Amino acid sequence: MTEFTGVKQPEFDTMASKHTEAARRLEELAQALHSELQSAGLDTSPAARLRQLAGRVTTQAEDLRRRQRLVHELQRQKVTFGRSTPAGSFLEMPDDLDAAKGLLDGTLAGRAALKAAYGDAKALAELEKYASRSGDAEFVKAFLGALGAQGVTRLPGSLAMQLRDAQVHGDRDRMARISSEGKKALRMLSTALARGTDPKNPAYMGDDLLKELVTEGRAEHKAGDTKYSGYQAQALIWRAHDGKPPFSKEFMEVVGRDVIVYENEQRKDEWAAGKDALGRPFGGIQLPILDLAGTLGFGTMLRPDSQASSPDMKNQASVVEDLFHAAKSSREASHALLNHTPAGWKESVLDYLLTTRWDASRFLGDYKPISDMLVTATTGQDATSKKLAAEMTKILADEMRGAFSKADSGNLEIKNRETFDRYAALSYPLSRAIAANIDQLSRLLLNHATFGQVSAKDMSYALALATSNDAGFEALVRAQTEHMRAALGTLPPVGLNASNAERLGFTKDDVKEFDFDGDGRVDKADIMQFLTDRTVEEARPFSHIVEIRRQVLIAQGLDDKKADEALKTMVGDAIGLLPVPGAKQVGQLAIGAFGDLVGKGYDKLAGTAYDAVAEHIAQQMSQRGRGLDETHRTLGDNRLAVERLAEQMLASSLLNKGLLDEFSRRGEIFMTGTPPTIKPFAEMSPQEYSEFLRWVRDKGGSSGLLDRFGGTFRRTSEVDDYLGLQIPSSTGDRR
Q: Which ranges carry the EF-hand domain (predicted)?
């Protein structure tokens, strides 16, 4: 809260003038005294102290003059109001100069915006000068205070109407100018509105502004012969937002939720009529409430970050899709919008958007806003993100049950193409939600658990949609790769016992858990048993993901033998060799092999969604500038690629936990130095890397582990059971 000081202008002007004069006289006196003392051969320090005093008074005088100029400008612009007291008339002056400047500029910008809202073309250009101030709290408060909810709603409406007027008169130059200046004004307004409606932001305007935005949003507005709702105009502000700062959860709780309810109220009867027996023959179109630019056919002409173009009906946007765009920049905001059931409704907002309203999103064909928002809302590691991820998975799984069936060949077929195509646009956000909760897939398959209301059968149908998207399938494989790496990362080191457990980061209970033969010490046999168990457990989710992907490709009539390029790249980059976030490096050879990759931000990723970890690791790998595995060029299908990744991860674990330290390394081409150590992977050639994997198989016993992985991974009976198929066995060639 800004503090204000009351000043009487005549006296303030006199004080500023006298301070300036005093500073000048003190400086002159200091110079004269210094000259006299120096001539007399006396100590000149008194003159120096006097000069310091003159400097302080000069600084104070300059500050007073700045304040004086600001007071005059505030008074000239009638920004502040005086206050009469028995002692005289006072002007309120902010103690902080920046705050005073923000008050002045914000008020002037608000006035310019109001003039622009009433069609003043020069005012729109004037407003642009203040765009850089939208991050200043005092500016935002003064700016929004001058505009109010009515002005906030009127400005985008006026811009759209000015565009239409220019179009009617065939003035293309004017249209281009309004489009350019309008985009900047809307971006500025969106930034200010995001700050001013966030209780955690110092620019917060209070709850009243949020309530007034709802009132104005629901109200009917009119410009000429065109009527529109306030939300149709406000939506242009939301779509103009760049997410910095994001809109708050409070904005979504008050304004956002009401927008969802408002559209439902306005369109419910019309949508229902389009689906009944009489409406279906006419196409059953589910028309959403378009934003004002869409209604007038201006497409993206008032949308920042888009190229100016001739107005048309392409790239239409609805009020609700514009809201999704605003919500996608903040997990809190997206949660506030989706994790809610409006009064009187029987379905949550998320359920409503994916079922009742979904055809309205399909009408527009612009899936990016809802897809981005769903990714934001469902990929966190918090309870609400997981709840929404489970809810979305269940909803889409139920929809997919009617889309698939068993073909005569025993494989999967698409029974209802319309249903499958209807939800194809949600395949990517669904895959990201499952990838962020990849541990739930293991729990469903291994422990017969549930994920919210999602069963293993539900998850299988959801994966049929999720894996149909190339990028989604990649996200799922990356996530399961990280899940397996994390599982193997819990492997204890050779020689762990009660005496060294604490030093190595373990407990005595851990020693008992890992000591399978009960001799009080974790030896190689214990570790190999642990690795075998984890390898089999991690192979089952991999099998589910890859086999369902294969079946979806078959159902779509595509080549299921072709390996996805993304997986080939993962194998070629040896992504399975990187250390696990939080894993302790114990093996002597591992320290050299991982080189400076260890500690480059991996530990900070603890608790992060698996797909985010995979993305980080992929970026680290790309910095190497080359791949390590030449065999990825010959991979024939996704199964071979995943088996190659498993081989890399098992080799990494054996190396990391010291199981290879005891073996002779002399004469191996992947060794360096004296005594010989394994080269850092970033320095290995593909040939050296290939020899390293061979050495691990020979010395570390990974061949048996790979055989157990492959046997489980290639067993497809679970997918057969859950999807009701009779999948022909497929062993494939292993390389």
A: 502-537
